[in-house]
Amino acid sequence: MLGLSTRRVLGCRHQFLVGALSIPRPAAAGLSRHHFPLFDTIRSRKYATNSSEAPVESKPRQSILSRLSPKSGNVSSFRKIAALAKPEKKPLLMAVGLLVVSSSVFMSVPMTVGKLIDFFSSTNPQFPLGLSIWQTSSILLVAFTLGAAANGGRAWLMRMAGQRIVARLRERTYAAALKQEVEFVEKGEGDVLSRLSVDTSIVGESVTQNLSDGLRAVVMSSVGLGAMFYLSPKLSTIRPRAYLLHTDLNLAMLMMVVVPPVSLGAVVYGRYLKKLANQTQEAVGEMTKVATESLSALRTVQAYNAYEQERLKFHDRIEHVLSLAKREATASSAFFAGTGWSGNVTFLCLLGYGGSLVSRGEISVGDLTSLLLYTIYVGNGLSMLSTFFSSIMRGIGSGQRIFDLLDRDPVIRSDTGVAISPDRRGLLKFENIQFEYPSRKGVEVLKNFELEVAVGESVAIVGKSGGGKSSIHSLLLRYYDPVQGKITFDGQDIREFSLESWRSVIGVVPQDPILFTGTIASNIAYGNTEATREQIEQAARDANCEFVWGMPQGFDTPIGRLSLSGGQRQRLAIARALLKKPALLALDEATSSLDATSEHRVNDAIDKILRNRNTTCLFVAHRLSTIARAERIVVLEDGRIVETGTYYQLVSRADSRFRALMAAQLNAAAGERITLDSVMKDEVIEEEEKPDPESEAKP
Ligand SMILES: Nc1ncnc2c1ncn2[C@@H]1O[C@H](COP(=O)(O)OP(=O)(O)OP(=O)(O)O)[C@@H](O)[C@H]1O
């Protein structure tokens, strides 16, 4: 086993070589890094300094002991990362086997070069075993070909194993993100995205590429050092043993000068790099969030000519990422310049000393060449090990971020509770609900909210904007749970039902329905993959989606997120909800005004639902024409129900809050004082008498 300090010292020698020779990157020369192990260090070092692709989470500084403790995050994260490689055991073991083959060939190169130099410089050249030059060349050629093939195989196996790990990790991370409560993901969307894309790649690289490089570094260092020791005794045949000791002592002394600062530097640098990489990853997450937000709202950005504003916002985040990259670049250049310099000096001393031995005829040129080449190899290997250390630290940082998400229990759990039968019907009851948003603690949105909705009943919730109407739907769908009180369905607390089965009995029509890239049919059948075309068409018919039949490709028409009108989107959303044959329908009426035709078609669709006595309907309504259709209206004010009754009961009371609310809305919309009675009468009558403009297209 090699002494750690010895390895580190030799590692510095290699640093110098790389710095001194200014070797170009293999990729730039169109060559694979696997053909040129010396280049590996350069590349991995560059990779290690590429902060823009690094991980998150600033953890408080830990002592080395605590870092090694089994309880520490690093160790457990490392174990989890290693566990990821388990399914890839077979290819990874094969890769290790190939690594042994390629390294054996590769490590024989210095010895061969030395022998060849001695052979060509001798007066009576003799190949071992009496082989001819052609036979020797053929053997070498076969060996190099085998080595190259093994190296290629190793690289392929490692890369593919890494990619499979990344793919699995991404799937698991994505699934974990989808199961979190909406607030967690909505607040940190960019962060989830960067965990999905960048962190998973870094972890994948850590368990495969970095591990492969690390193994290779161990082989290079240990075999190289072994070869150096093998070559050293030969020197004693030229000089007495005391001289050999003297040689070794000088070598050891040289090492001792360089080892302590370099070792310390490697540890400090590795830890600093991990901390910086974590910060960088957080900054990249912020940057992604800004970009995602503005790109998904491109229409608004363009409508308000806010390119500059958005560009500047993004610029600020980029600057932050850049400043972290600068700190990382400074640290890595200082570290590698320092180790490179000390390595160069050490190597030059060795060369000078060995050269003087050659000039005195005490060792052969071939042996010195082999010795120096092995020194380079060992240095290269040790340098790779220090890069491996910092890369692993980065992998651990990224792993922590991913495992934080994978291990996170959503506040609202999806794996508990009993399944509710889709045919179950019963009273829906909100009992003394108290609610505030977790992100806005202390601001009560609902206070002592009490409401009962009978089976098949339709209730419209009305109230001022921001009064908490949509929050009632959020609680019903269990995006959030109340702070106090409970919602029961058929006498059972809805928290006792499994989340998935509970949501499957609710049809939702949000204010601004979201369509997904796909066809009209796939959008109606969203979340309901088993629906037949007949069922989809029936749901579309019930939701007054006649426009679909008028489209050239009908239900197979491809649509994007916003490629339909507001009214069409709303009707498609109604069809989507109806397809579920829900026990409960939560409809949030669009606040944006639809044109008269669309409004009529939407209301007509809602009417059909309300007539269905099998579906309980709780809808948030704004327009009189919709509100009037409900069997009961509840008026919400300051998070409480202040009034309840049928439409006619409420409008017939001169001092009703409902009348005041509607009058205020109408006056605000019309910009003048008008009488509520006339408008309400007109609106409802108008609705009932309005001809059906799309009925001709109706199938
Ligand atoms: N995710 C959220 N986090 C924090 N506060 C929120 C969140 N969503 C809504 N709120 C706040 O809760 C209150 C009630 O909002 P809610 O959307 O339920 O009102 P609303 O009556 O449906 O309004 P509108 O009629 O305008 O749609 C508002 O003050 C709103 O700012």
From TrEMBL:
Protein's membrane topology: Multi-pass membrane protein
Segments passing through the bilayer: 92-113, 133-150, 214-231, 251-269, 334-354, 374-393
Superkingdom assignment: Eukaryota
Keyword entries, A-Z: ATP-binding, Membrane, Nucleotide-binding, Transmembrane, Transmembrane helix
Example GO molecular function: ABC-type oligopeptide transporter activity
GO CC, alphabetical: mitochondrial inner membrane
Pfam family, one: ABC_membrane
Bias kind Polar residues: ranges: 61-72
Gene Ontology BP annotations: oligopeptide export from mitochondrion
Domain ABC transmembrane type-1 residues, every copy: 93-394
Family statement drawn from the similarity comment of this UniProt entry: Belongs to the ABC transporter superfamily. ABCB family. Mitochondrial peptide exporter (TC 3.A.1.212) subfamily.
Full protein name: ATP-binding cassette transporter
